[in-house]
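Hi D.,

Good news: the full-assembly prediction came through. Inputs first.
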Amino acid sequence: MSSQQTILTGDRPTGKLHLGHYAGSLAARVQLQHQHRQFVMLADVQALTDHAHEPQKIRESIYEVLLDYLAIGIDPNKTTIFIQSLIPALPELTMYYLNLITWNRLKHNPTVKLEIQQKGYGEEVPAGFMIYPVSQAADITAFKASLVPAGDDQIPMIEQCIEIVRKFNRLYKTDVLVEPKMVPSPVARLPGIDGKAKMSKGLGNAIYLSDSPDEVMRKVKGMYTDPGHLRVEDPGKVEGNPVFTYLDAFATDKTKVGELKDHYQRGGLGDSIVKKYLLDVLQAFLDPIRQRRAEFARDRDQVMSIAYRGTEVAREVANNTLLEVRGAMGMNYL
Amino acid sequence: MSSQQTILTGDRPTGKLHLGHYAGSLAARVQLQHQHRQFVMLADVQALTDHAHEPQKIRESIYEVLLDYLAIGIDPNKTTIFIQSLIPALPELTMYYLNLITWNRLKHNPTVKLEIQQKGYGEEVPAGFMIYPVSQAADITAFKASLVPAGDDQIPMIEQCIEIVRKFNRLYKTDVLVEPKMVPSPVARLPGIDGKAKMSKGLGNAIYLSDSPDEVMRKVKGMYTDPGHLRVEDPGKVEGNPVFTYLDAFATDKTKVGELKDHYQRGGLGDSIVKKYLLDVLQAFLDPIRQRRAEFARDRDQVMSIAYRGTEVAREVANNTLLEVRGAMGMNYL
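Then the structure:
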């Protein structure tokens, strides 16, 4: 991976971004933008597949997520940030790819199956939701992304994309579509402040990049720890204890974290002391982010114009791929 | 229907058009273009849903079908003829509409179910084929078509479209989408020359608008008639006898057709005599069509430019609808 590659990544704009997003993907983007050609997509079309009833929320989240991106250091001069719904090549590619895979194949996508279960859709799953892996294949291939950062739960999506790429290139005797490789997420999923396996806005257990110092304090104070650690002198567990997981993810002084872990496990270290340290760590991490966020938020139009400029660039790249795709299919009529 | 309405109709370009197309829809279009705003779509994207492996055939058929249109008198100054794949608003609308209907609903579309059976797809039906009713809803609504000429087998498609229109307008508190009404086909389906219920290129039983006089002669001579009419003096049946069905559809001298029917039913009228008359009728009908077709075929670029000019007009209409749709959804970001 030493030579420059093309990366596609992004977020569904259905709310502000939180520490889980940062640890799982945002931090890596800030690094990757220096080595690679990086596209970051505000996936509003994909967000609609299960939020068709609240496009206003998506609209507002586009702005909030943009602020989050800029605040954490995604640099629009290095990374192309764009809005999915403003790239007409994407739905068109989706339509062509839908002819290359079967209904049956879509039905058996393990990630989609699990999500349908989690969302309680049953038979009433929106058709758009069922086909979103194909729409993702359009996103990835439109930018000829060779690297796609993703968690393990996204493996079936990448496999689906590779399948479409191979089928297309074979059927139309071409090599215009590029097979993506997955870049595994650098850290395991960050748990919620309630100790649940996943930090998620849906579960109400997230610390947001935009949370005020008071909100962060309130959330850290209320965090789940080791339920068996009743008295200060008791030995406590650090595994499955989100306070220590967050320290591992965000504290820069690893020695200090190691000492705290040892002390906690021996007994004699109170939760409130560890939480106080975590709070310091998080505030130190979040302070400059909050500050940059507030600066950018002074001019909403300018923030949006960053997305629009990125969208112009992305539109041209995707259109060029679409022209090649249509050419390979013999559909270059004009 | 006295006031001017908007009509959307069209064909899947998967081969030349035949007498069945003429009787079932083309003749009506020539009439309707004088009263209404008519859009005729060359549905190449829809053709790909079950012809993904032969886009070259679709490409060539676009030209042939265009020639058929012009030859029978569809007037590009009155009718907007356009190519579906060159209207980017259509796949985008399709994506939004897919979120408004369930997977389950798509699965139970009776027309699609029957077609899957006829094509022998079973579980291996392309996903694009399953969703084509939604794509049709995008076509119809993009042009705000209030009238859609269609056969009885298309009733479920119109119902699906109306369902999407109502769901969209209700959900986004708008009236931008227009409910279409079906215009029933003016004649019953034309049988094939083999007497089978449907003239179809797939069944190899069609007389094409572009067939040469010799081909038409050969096909008429070989036509299925009443299998019980063995000797000239025997009484023959006119019901289910395609020779008489074609006469009903294409002969202008209805008195003469009535006399032939009576004579045939009484006995004493040979098949060859009736076929000879049908041949005269068809040649008289097809001669001017062939002549105009040959004239247009002298300049392929000019024929294609008619479709491109129509496509420009159609693109603007569809884009305006898309802007209204995005506005209703609060997605008018720019």
